[in-house]
């Protein structure tokens, strides 16, 4: 963060104070209708920004920590090996400030990412805050503790779990035992009515597992999205990288699986772009040229660095994970808006053949065919959540903690000292106890108080 904190979150001096505050907020209970509204909100904003040619961080991949329980050998962020002062994580308050700032700048679709985000003790509270604020939230994980702590993340709109193939092939690159953890996490997501997705990173070792993954996704009742390992500069992954020919064949296989009716995420044009990509698949920043055969695919412009950004836990802002990280602007020196603007101004990409990125490009381009595919998926996913979740049972971590009398007094004093309307139930109750009337103590928990 530039110059430390600048917001109301500054009053929390420690993570525990901020977390205690967050635990006093109402619990967000997602439903089909609420999730559909969050999705529609993203779409409305997108339409407005596109119509008015505005650039905003509508879609942000927010990396919330520098740590990971795994050390996958291909990881572009090397999150499992980040250590030391250089990689100090955002405090709870800093993360909340960043989230508020993104909301102010127009972000409505937040993909919460790590490292491994489940390693953050406050992750449930952060998600709850994001959902109360109104973001559409997608949550990416390797599955770590998901089954055990499912209630903490239950408010999310989509759960994305990485899983690369058969057990041996997955565990070879992602670590022993990860296959079992990931499958358990997906099952937990489905049982909790969270629309869930298998995200597979394909290498030469597991490209033959694509059909296996499609079958697995179908049997678990989730979708599967494939991405192709990318990291041309990293010598350690050279042997795993597919050639351009293998990449084309892989994308063709994804298209075939989709046409066979498997729950595959991508639009036809996105797959065709990778299949018929002119030249080498390492060729980033390509500009469309007249030699491109547009009868086979319609090149989609890149909106990364225009409407979508990735913010790393070390503060760097990039257009997307596959871009140049070495010269990336940093929110710690330029501020959030400054770093986003610099990233936008430095943008070099025009088109690329990366599957997941192009699917988002196609959505942001709003071509009618892609929108139909997106709409079909969004409606089906929203419906999976259900209309009312009567069986909500918060875990200890997800529920407001039992506050001590000293904590309550502290919160009460804080509210008075800052001359603000209390925003937690605890603060409201404290005000009522000290003789204030309900109208003065009006909060988001008002109805709870009144019904007592
Ligand atoms: C960086 S991880 C962070 C979230 C979480 N730890 C996980 O593994 O899902 C996000 C996704 O990026 C993928 N990934 C990592 N390195 C990659 C690379 N070089 N090329 C393509 N995908 C990569 C991972 O497999 C994972 O699905
Ligand atoms: S689990 Fe995710 S963040 Fe961790 S090392 Fe693997 S790919 Fe990287």
Task: Explain what the structure shows.
The chain has 452 residues and is α/β, with parallel strands linked by helices. The protein has two domains: 7-382, Aldolase class I (TIM Barrel, Alpha-Beta Barrel); 387-448, no CATH class. The chain contains 15 helices and eight strands. Strand 7 and strand 8 (317-318) form a beta hairpin. Helix 3 runs parallel beside helix 4. It starts with 14 loop residues before the first helix and ends with a helix. Bound molecules: S-adenosylmethionine (SAM) and iron/sulfur cluster (SF4). S-adenosylmethionine binds at residues 68, 74-77, 113-114, 116, 140-142, 162, 199, 201, 227, 229-231.
Task: Draw up the topology in text.
Layout: H1 15-23, H2 32-51, E1 59-63, H3 92-105, E2 109-113, H4 123-133, E3 136-141, E4 158-162, H5 167-174, H6 178-191, E5 196-202, H7 210-220, E6 223-228, H8 244-259, H9 268-275, E7 308-311, E8 317-318, H10 331-345, H11 355-365, H12 368-385, H13 405-417, H14 425-433, H15 446-450
Parallel strand pairs: 1-2, 1-7, 2-3, 3-4, 4-5, 5-6
Antiparallel strand pairs: 7-8
Helix pairs in contact: 2-12, 3-4, 8-9, 9-11, 13-14
């Amino acid at each position: 963060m530039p110059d430390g904190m600048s917001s109301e979150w500054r009053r929390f001096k420690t993570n525990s104070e901020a977390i205690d505050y967050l635990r006093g907020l109402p619990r967000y209970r997602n439903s089909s209708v609420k999730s559909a509204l969050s999705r529609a909100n993203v779409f409305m904003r997108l339409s407005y920004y596109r119509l008015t040619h505005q650039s905003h961080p509508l879609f942000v991949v927010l990396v919330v920590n520098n740590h990971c329980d795994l050390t996958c050998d291909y990881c572009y962020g090397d999150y499992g090996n980040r250590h030391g002062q250089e990689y100090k994580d955002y405090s709870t308050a800093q993360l909340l400030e960043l989230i508020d700032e993104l909301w102010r700048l127009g972000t409505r679709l937040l993909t919460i990412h790590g490292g491994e985000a489940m390693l953050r003790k406050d992750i449930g509270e952060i998600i709850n805050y994001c959902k109360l604020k109104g973001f559409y939230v997608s949550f990416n994980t390797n599955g770590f503790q998901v089954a055990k702590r499912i209630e903490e993340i239950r408010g999310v709109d989509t759960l994305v779990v990485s899983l690369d193939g058969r057990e041996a092939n997955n565990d070879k690159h992602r670590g022993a035992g990860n296959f079992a953890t990931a499958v358990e996490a997906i099952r937990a997501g489905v049982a909790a009515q969270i629309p869930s997705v298998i995200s597979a990173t394909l290498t030469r070792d597991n490209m033959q597992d694509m059909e296996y993954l499609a079958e697995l996704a179908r049997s678990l009742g989730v979708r599967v999205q494939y991405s192709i390992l990318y990291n041309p500069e990293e010598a350690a992954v050279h042997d795993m990288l597919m050639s351009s020919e293998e990449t084309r064949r892989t994308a063709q296989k994804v298209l075939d699986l989709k046409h066979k009716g498997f729950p595959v995420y991508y639009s036809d044009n996105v797959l065709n772009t990778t299949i018929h990509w002119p030249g080498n698949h390492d060729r980033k920043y390509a500009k469309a040229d007249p030699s491109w055969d547009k009868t086979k695919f319609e090149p989609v412009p890149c909106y990364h660095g225009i409407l979508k950004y990735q913010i790393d836990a070390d503060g760097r802002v990039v257009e997307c994970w596959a871009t140049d990280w070495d010269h990336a602007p940093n929110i710690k020196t330029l501020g959030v808006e400054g770093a986003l603007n610099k990233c936008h101004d430095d943008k070099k990409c025009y088109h690329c053949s990366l599957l997941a990125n192009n699917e988002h490009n196609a959505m942001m381009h709003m071509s009618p065919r892609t929108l139909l595919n997106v709409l079909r998926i969004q409606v089906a996913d929203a419906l999976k959540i259900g209309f009312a979740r009567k069986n909500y049972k918060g875990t200890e971590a997800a529920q407001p903690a039992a506050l001590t009398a000293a904590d309550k007094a502290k919160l009460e004093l804080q509210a008075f000292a800052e001359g603000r309307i209390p925003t937690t139930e605890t603060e409201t109750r404290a005000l009522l106890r000290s003789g204030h009337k309900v109208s003065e103590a009006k909060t988001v928990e008002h109805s709870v108080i009144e019904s007592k």
